[in-house]
Amino acid sequence: MWGNWRAGMRACLEWAGLGEGQRKREFRAYIRNVAEARYVIRRILRIAEDRAKEHGLEPLTHQALLQVYGTDGDITVGRLAARLDIAAAFASRLMRRLDEMGLVTRTPSETDRRVTIVTATKDGAEKLSAIDDDMHRHGALLHHELSADERHMALSVFAFYVGLDPPRPVARAIRAGAGH
């Protein structure tokens, strides 16, 4: 476990462009990168939440529909709950609501009747497409508000969060764009 933590810290320092000894001296700059990433993520999530509401979906219901459609078209309620980090009973209620709206269908598994498989309908896919169209328009406004440094700082920290290995070509390209 601690070996993974140390490897993670080395990767984080590399993403931040800091050597081990620089970390304490450059901690504020590193935290600025983290703060910028969180700011950008929050702004993007707010745009997505607002677009979903404009199209009649609560943000978590929208996220649930995204997960259903984005996972090869069908998903079990249990897997959906895990992907949304919510209780299975709550995921089941979300799916019932989406089913009532005609955006998904729920079917018992053929191999285990306790398992429900959820599939997005054509209307569900169209709803996601409409939200995504709005998301792109509003996201473009955010792009213009962010400086190149803000975009690169956020991208660097996000790349670290998802475990993108710093020596990979795409990671080097991100770092090069950030001036590292």
Structural summary, described in words:
The chain is mainly alpha-helical and about 180 residues long. It folds into 2 domains: about 1-45 and about 150-180, no CATH class; about 55-145, Arc Repressor Mutant, subunit A, CATH 1.10.10.10. It has 9 helices and 3 strands, in the order ααααβααββααα. It has helices at about 1-15, 20-25, 25-55, 60-70, 75-85, 90-100, 120-145, 150-160, 170-175; strands at about 75, 105-110, 115-120. A 3-stranded antiparallel beta sheet has the order 1-3-2. The radius of gyration is 20 Å and the shape is elongated. The protein starts with a helix and ends with a helix.
Largest sheet: 3 strands, antiparallel
CATH class of the largest domain: Mainly Alpha
Annotated CATH architecture of the largest domain? Orthogonal Bundle
Low-confidence stretches: 1-5
CATH topology label of the largest domain: Arc Repressor Mutant, subunit A
User: On the 0-100 scale, what is the average pLDDT?
Assistant: 83
Instruction: Note the overall shape.
Output: elongated
Oligomer: single chain
Could you give me the name of the CATH homologous superfamily of the largest domain?
A: Winged helix-like DNA-binding domain superfamily/Winged helix DNA-binding domain
Radius of gyration: 20 Å
Head-to-tail CA distance between termini: 29 Å
Number of spatially distinct domains = 2
Number of strands: 3
Spell the H/E element sequence.
Answer: HHHHEHHEEHHH
What percent of the residues sit in helical stretches (DSSP H or I)?
Answer: over 70%
Strand order of the largest sheet: 1-3-2
